[in-house]
Write a structure and sequence with these properties.
alpha+beta, three-stranded antiparallel β-sheet, two-stranded antiparallel sheet
């Protein structure tokens, strides 16, 4: 595994669990590589753009930490997208990792 741990559970009756475990770990390492992760992230952003456009949202910002005179400074990360519709502003963060987003970052407000 690249960064982290994998915990695999098998039924006791499964005879060749070690062979299958190697296959699963290799698959996770392949899809966890930076090249694959970058491609998945780009594709995720394209899906977000298409979905919000289809629902007639207007994109107001891309890869930014500022909007409407406010600045998001707690985590020093940029928001992937800022959309607006019916005078309501939505910020969107696209994630392409195998792990969950840090809860502190998710809950942070400015």
């Amino acid at each position: 595994m690249i960064d982290g741990q994998i915990k695999l559970l098998w039924n006791r009756s499964f005879r060749y669990y070690k062979r299958e475990a190697k296959r699963v770990v290799a698959l996770v390492e392949e899809y966890g590589s930076p090249n694959i992760g970058g491609a998945i992230g780009w594709h995720g952003e394209q899906m977000i753009l298409a979905g919000f456009a289809r629902r007639e949202f207007v994109m107001r910002g891309h890869n930014t930490h500022r909007y409407g005179g406010k600045e998001w400074t707690k985590t020093n990360h940029n928001l992937d997208f800022i959309f607006e519709r019916d005078q309501i502003v939505y910020s969107v963060q696209v994630k392409n990792t195998l792990s969950y987003m840090d809860q502190g970052e998710f809950l942070s407000e400015d």
